[in-house]
Amino acid sequence: MKDQNLYNYVLQHADSSLILGQRLAEWCGHGPILEQDIAMSNISLDLIGQCRMWYQYAAEIQDEGKSEDEIVAFRDAWDYRNVQLVEQPNGDFAQTIFRQFLFDTYSVHFYEMLINSKDERLAAIAGKSHKEALYHVKWSGDWVIRLGDGTEESHDRMKAAIDELWSYSGELTKPNETETKAFEEGYGVNLAALKEKRDAKIREILTEATLEVPESTYTHEGGKDGRHTEHLGYILSDLQFLQRAYPGQEW
Amino acid sequence: MKNWPLWEIFIRSKAGLNHKHVGSLHAADEEMAIQNARDVYTRRNEGVSIWVVKSEFITASDPDDSDPLYEPAKDKVYRHPTFYDLPDEVKHM
């Protein structure tokens, strides 16, 4: 292992993109309308594409000859470092939209700032991913506004989604040891500065959607250090089945 | 969503070319129509510009009028500029 902290930092972001991509993929064939079904599949594929760049870099840093697939398929839940938000169930469309919105408002600013990382690989991953994240946040933000400022039912569902997911929002911008060190060493993002931008964006969109920003700042945390909700194990059993049953299998 | 209007989608495949009709889709308003068109019709790199127009604003010719409308043009070959010798320097004709 060349650099354990860099490895953990890369893995955190790889895992969050992968798990959210997998969750969104569950919508494939079940979207409310064909056009949105495709939109969610597109975003899912963007996220899977992003996580591949992260995992490939992780494999290089780890330097044990493992492939990106092996890193994904042969780790158990406690070795996954995704934030707890992304493993939360799809729920109804409003819940999926709000989970996505909370993630997108983070990732769009994360990649925007990571472009200035002193690590060239991270900067390159950020450059490519930022354009995708700009579209994602436009999509999810527009839907938050449409549903919030829509009918009575869509407003209520959006409100329920906020109640359900708000306590998973803060983990994204609350630095753990890995992120603090990454920032100090010049390759990671300053999460305090990111939080300011993200909070402003969330407030702007929720206000336009005639929804209230919850006052609570309580947040679940620990996903980034391997502590997860009950959902992750089920996701992994789906995601990892093929490689576990037929190790080394390729397309 | 049954009530969402139908939109006709036009995509320009690259700068300088014209927008071409590629299909139709449902969306609540023009902004969503653009986004849906982006997701449905440009995901394989098909375009650089999108036009959307509500299907109800398209006026179409009546298929029953095909004969009087199009038949008369068929035997007027002299309307095609095929009787000129083009210099080799002239391209894209």
TrEMBL record, chain A:
It comes from the Bacteria. One of its GO terms (biological process) is phenylacetate catabolic process. This is Ring-1,2-phenylacetyl-CoA epoxidase subunit PaaC. One of its GO terms (cellular component) is cytosol. Pfam families: PaaA_PaaC (PF05138). The lineage of its organism: Bacteria, Pseudomonadati, Bacteroidota, Cytophagia, Cytophagales. InterPro entries: Aromatic_CoA_ox/epox, Ferritin-like, Ferritin-like_SF, PaaA_PaaC, PaaC. It comes from Ekhidna lutea.
Automatic annotation (TrEMBL), chain B:
It comes from the Bacteria. It holds the Pfam family PaaB. This is Ring-1,2-phenylacetyl-CoA epoxidase subunit PaaB. It comes from Ekhidna lutea. The lineage of its organism: Bacteria, Pseudomonadati, Bacteroidota, Cytophagia, Cytophagales.
